[in-house]
Amino acid sequence: MQRRRLAAELQRLRGASGRTLEEVAERLECSPAKISRIENNLVAVRIQDARELLDFYRVSGERREELLTMVREARRKGWWSAYSAVMDESTENLLSLEEDAVRVSIYDERAVSPLLQTPDYARAQLTAADELDSAAIERRVELLAERQRIATGPDGPQLAIVLDEAPLRRYAGGTAIMAGQLDRLIHASDQNKLELRVMPFSRGPSNAQGFPAQIFEFAADPRVVYTEQFGGGGRMIEAAEEVGLYLSAFEQLWARALTPSATRDFLKALRVEL
């Protein structure tokens, strides 16, 4: 997130200065392509290059120090770096978004949201979806536990999660594991910073069907949508018009889903069925 903000600000500063990519590249004694990659957040900017850029754009005083602090923070490794062996770059992007967001809206009809999964349910999902050895699976479960601890802790974002009925009736790992997962959801449905709703079959199809997404809202930045891709990886959507489509779909889904109290009753009824 810091890199995104920094890249956008460096691009804005260059535009305000009237400098071309070629002029900036000549000053830094590099290629115009490198400056373009920095401004499009494809590579991180080094602190030395940042100082040269700010000198060239005549940025001084408090604003200069703020931007240099952003450079240092953008290059800081996240808590998830210890798990780099079992995740890809898109997962790092997802965790970075979660860390900075003030609110996250989530919908996925394929499985229980990872932020609410029990370790046993997560193992069952990983075993079915990936060709991983047991050590890699356990490492991913550890990563998930740390992610949950941070995202659902006192400093985590406000969470709005819609669960589809389908994964609640798809007994990942068997009935005993699913019973534990339902117990977890019932407990989660009573937490302050989490509003949980179920979209039951009885409400019919929705315009969000087939489009799992997470919508991230920030204190000072535009919303970002993260969607997982078939076969692994994810895509970040930042274009305002496309983000608006996902937001509208989620709001309609949210309005049609069961209320929090009805969701709790629904989950308890499923638990009794088991």
Descriptive account of the structure:
By secondary structure, the chain is of the alpha/beta class. It has 2 domains: 2-74, 434 Repressor (Amino-terminal Domain); 88-273, Endonuclease, Chain A. Helix content is 54%, strand content 12%. The chain contains 12 helices and 6 strands. It has a 6-stranded mixed sheet, with helices on both faces. A hairpin with a 6-residue loop joins β4 and β5. The longest helix is centred in the middle third of the chain and has 18 residues, at 134-151.
Describe the structure concisely for a colleague:
With 274 residues, the chain is an alpha/beta fold. Helix content is 54%, strand content 12%.
Termini separation: 43 Å
Structural class: alpha/beta
CATH topology of the largest domain: Endonuclease, Chain A
Domain tally: 2
The percent range for helix content is: 40-55%
**Level-2 CATH architecture of the largest domain:** 2-Layer Sandwich
Q: Please list the strands of the largest sheet in the order they lie side by side.
A: 3-2-1-4-5-6
The unreliable regions are none
Using only C-alpha atoms, the radius of gyration works out to: 22 Å
Order of helices and strands: HHHHHHEHHEHHEEEEHH
Share in β-strands: 5-15%
Largest sheet: 6 strands, mixed
Question: Number of helical segments?
Answer: 12
Topology of this protein?
Blueprint: H1 2-17, H2 21-28, H3 32-39, H4 47-56, H5 61-74, H6 89-100, E1 103-108, H7 119-129, H8 134-151, E2 158-164, H9 165-169, H10 175-188, E3 194-199, E4 213-217, E5 224-228, E6 234-237, H11 240-256, H12 260-273
Parallel strand pairs: 1-2, 2-3
Antiparallel strand pairs: 1-4, 4-5, 5-6
